[in-house]
Design brief:
- The protein is about 35% helix and about 15% strand.
- It is α+β, with helices and mostly antiparallel strands and about 375 residues long.
- The chain has a six-stranded antiparallel beta sheet, with helices on both faces. A three-stranded antiparallel beta sheet has the order 5-9-6. The chain has a three-stranded mixed beta sheet with strand order 8-7-14, with no helix packed on it.
Length: about 375
């Protein structure tokens, strides 16, 4: 009987000690999270007060949001504030969705990465040897369409993918280099990819992305929007602002007139024009850890640095910049800058951490504070 009583007290003492340790560990974890939240808010709030940050930020760890906050105005005129559901133009962050659409069409057997571009876009028949793969990883050598449009386009009209490709067919500007000879970031490549998506799928760029990416992932606040080419009433939308030195205030790019390329190129999709929220982009991030859209073989293409013909690494995958960091492991990211919007997404794949930043002020003082955010998240 004495032995039984002693065993009872010892077992319960062990259980009690275990419970205490678990409670202390839980409180320590919560304290760490609280500390990071406080530090992140201090960083972002300080930047906002110094006119360096205006928008939404979301930081997540293994899919759990550890910091999410909104700063500033979505509309300077009405003084409407930004909130978590505010949609922003993603600018070049859009490229990862264009790349994903090409991957999905490849998986459907409707195209091959090795297909020459002229198979789908005969307007570019003069540019032999360029494949869809070259477009995806920015090794095509196609000249910049924006520079071409600035020189030749009638600024009273808003250009579209079709009209820009017609301009290429007519002018035939010289290629920058031979296919895969070197890496050079190319908005032209992603304009062409969007056209390929439309012609192969026989649907609009917007409809294909909506049906095959946005709706399946529950990204209900993600859409294609060209506010100058096809204006609509979008609920809770962030207007994009730049600073005018002459007027000494923030303005919409429209106030610079039709000569501004951010106005007359508003009909172009593929290199930009996806609009979204931080919460929808977190859904996108989570889906990329699963096989919902693509499998592991596809992900190797998406998240690997591809090489040029000289063997030089491009540090670019299919719509993502690639970095192998000693501190953080494999990091994939993309930034965007267009018509007043400064955007950024960074995914630490090995450690499952995500940073999403959407801003609607593109000023000289605007910053993307990702290095400081990483230091806080990692407790540095």
């Amino acid at each position: 009987m004495i032995v039984i009583i002693l065993n009872y007290f010892m077992n319960n003492q062990v259980k009690c000690m275990g419970a205490i340790i678990f409670t202390l560990f839980s409180q320590l974890c919560l304290a760490q999270e609280d500390t990071r939240h406080i530090q992140l808010h201090h960083l972002l709030d300080s930047l906002h007060r110094s006119n360096a940050f205006n928008g939404n930020v979301l930081v997540a760890e293994k899919g759990k949001v550890i910091y999410q906050e909104s700063f500033g105005l979505a509309d300077e005129k009405s003084k409407r504030k930004i909130d978590h559901d505010t949609a922003f133009e993603l600018a070049s962050v859009s490229k990862q969705f264009t790349a994903m659409a090409i991957i999905l069409l490849q998986k459907q057997g409707k195209l091959s990465y090795s297909d020459e571009v002229s198979k789908y876009v005969p307007e570019l028949a003069a540019y032999k040897g360029i494949t869809l793969h070259h477009l995806l990883v920015h090794t095509s050598g196609l000249p910049d369409y924006m520079a071409l449009a600035v020189k030749y386009w009638n600024k009273n009209d808003i250009a579209t993918n079709a009209s820009i490709l017609k301009l290429f067919e007519q002018v035939k500007p010289e290629r920058e280099f031979q296919p895969n000879e070197k890496w050079e970031y190319s908005d032209t490549g992603y304009l062409v990819l969007a056209t390929v998506i439309e012609r192969v799928s026989k649907s609009s760029f917007n409809d294909f992305l909506k049906q095959n990416i946005f709706m399946p992932l529950g990204m209900n606040r993600t859409f294609i929007y060209q506010r100058r080419y096809e204006p609509m009433q979008i609920e809770n939308y962030a207007e994009g602002y730049i600073y005018s030195d002459s007027l000494k205030r923030k303005i919409l790019p429209d106030e610079l007139g039709n000569e501004n390329y951010e106005v007359f190129l508003d009909g172009v999709v593929g290199d930009g024009m996806v609009n979204s929220t931080t919460e929808d982009l977190l859904k996108w991030d989570r889906a990329l850890y699963t096989d919902q859209l693509i499998d592991d073989n596809d992900k190797k293409l998406v998240f690997s640095s591809h090489e040029t013909s000289t063997g030089k690494a491009t540090a670019y995958g299919y719509g993502w910049f690639i970095e192998n960091s000693e501190k953080y492991g494999k990091v994939v990211s993309h930034s965007g800058d267009w018509a007043g919007y400064i955007t950024y997404i960074e995914r630490h794949i090995d450690r499952d951490k995500t940073i999403i930043i959407l801003q609607n002020n593109s000023l000289e003082s605007t910053v993307i504070p990702v290095p400081d955010i990483c230091k806080i998240v990692y407790g540095e």
